[in-house]
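Worked example 3 (structure in, sequence out).
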């Protein structure tokens, strides 16, 4: 194929999902000329995600390091939402509604008690409620609910609106969009120098950010020892609609672990009720299966029997970009000029504000802020960075 070289930008972001867009927006705000490569910017996993900002209720054993980043990002959300809404002129559906995690049987209750203890040891705020107290908060809950954890700090945002607002904010900040697929990374004299796109053009840049979600591990031209160790983890998600006559159906996010599977119901102010999500190691498969839909509806129905009355308006599957330790890869790689912002797994929406801030600081000032340093790609031997490199 003939390659047409073009004049370049300071920063080229490969991937226009929410992580790529927030990186581009924040970089442009720092005065860097920035371009994004993506055939369909604003798409990706955020199109499927429910948008829970669940730093506390999604705490897992062994993920204490990630907790610090999650909490830092959750704290930034109110200001981030206000700033993005002002910059884009769009509502992103940020809703400070809190979350209720409930137990349906004795095993679930033991599991929740463990989670409560882990949250307490981690300095997080959550309150134990009896089943009756849970139902007083959320009258649509099943009579069998045995108890629950009230977490008033775990909120929600609408990921589709978030992506649309980021796209507009990027455009208004002067970010240039190349609506093509990146075919391969350009490397010149052992340094990342841009990308060759599917239309045959080559976009040059001083710094390249690979933020292509699960696809980040597949970009041609990236040396093997630099390829990020991310893999797709499939999640099936359903969308129902709550007719106005039924409102308020739920006033906050309700979630549980039912027979070992996580299920959550996220009610939006516009009447959408999102039910998620399966977690499946199925490679690149994004088929919505009868089994996936059945399990989600069965588990959600055990929690909130009244869902059977609601119209089912959408079923979708997306791919979470998962890393070996479930935490993102943020920062420079062993290939000078190439940075990563990927591997956000279950927390892409939550981590959007802190990722944008961290990546912009790296791109503009040459180093990651303290909060993001533990997430350097260098923690995985395959993606070890070289010693501190100054920005170009
Ligand atoms: N954070 C929710 C999920 O990944 O399903």
């Amino acid at each position: 194929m003939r390659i047409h070289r073009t004049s370049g930008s300071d920063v080229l972001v490969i991937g226009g999902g929410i992580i790529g867009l927030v990186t581009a927006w924040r970089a442009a705000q720092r005065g860097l000329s920035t371009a994004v490569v993506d055939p369909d910017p604003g798409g990706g996993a955020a199109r499927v995600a429910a948008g829970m900002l669940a730093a506390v209720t999604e705490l897992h054993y062994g993920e204490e390091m990630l907790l610090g980043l999650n909490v830092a990002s959750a704290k930034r959300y109110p200001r981030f939402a206000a700033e993005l809404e002002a910059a884009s002129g769009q509502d992103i559906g940020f809703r400070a509604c809190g979350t209720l995690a409930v137990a349906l049987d004795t095993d679930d209750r033991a599991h929740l008690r463990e989670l409560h203890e882990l949250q307490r040891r981690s300095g997080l705020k959550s309150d134990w409620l009896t089943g009756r107290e849970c139902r007083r908060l959320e009258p649509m809950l099943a009579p069998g609910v045995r108890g629950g954890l009230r977490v008033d700090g775990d909120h929600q945002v609408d990921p589709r609106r978030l992506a649309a607002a980021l796209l507009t904010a990027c455009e208004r900040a002067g970010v240039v969009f190349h609506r093509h697929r990146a075919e391969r990374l350009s490397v010149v004299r052992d340094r990342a120098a841009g990308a060759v796109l599917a239309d045959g053009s080559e976009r040059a840049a001083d710094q390249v950010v690979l933020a292509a979600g699960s696809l980040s591990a597949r970009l041609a031209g990236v040396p093997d020892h630099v390829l990020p160790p991310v893999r797709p983890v499939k999640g099936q998600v359903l969308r129902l609609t709550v007719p106005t006559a039924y409102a308020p159906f739920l006033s906050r996010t309700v979630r549980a672990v039912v027979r070992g599977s996580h299920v959550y119901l996220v009610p939006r102010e516009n009447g959408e009720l999102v039910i998620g999500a399966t977690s499946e190691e199925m490679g690149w498969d994004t088929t919505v299966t009868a089994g996936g839909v059945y399990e989600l509806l069965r588990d959600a129905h055990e929690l909130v029997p009244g869902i059977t009355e609601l119209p089912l308006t959408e079923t979708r599957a997306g791919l979470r970009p998962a890393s070996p330790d479930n935490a993102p890869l943020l920062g420079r790689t062993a290939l000078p000029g190439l940075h990563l912002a990927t591997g956000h797994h279950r927390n892409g929406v939550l981590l959007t504000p802190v990722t944008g801030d961290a990546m912009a600081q790296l791109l503009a000032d040459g180093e990651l802020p303290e909060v993001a340093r533990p997430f350097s790609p260098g923690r995985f031997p395959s993606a070890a960075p070289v010693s501190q490199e100054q920005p170009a």
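Notes: The longest strand covers residues 4-14. The chain has two domains: 4-47+161-228+324-379, 95-154+232-322.
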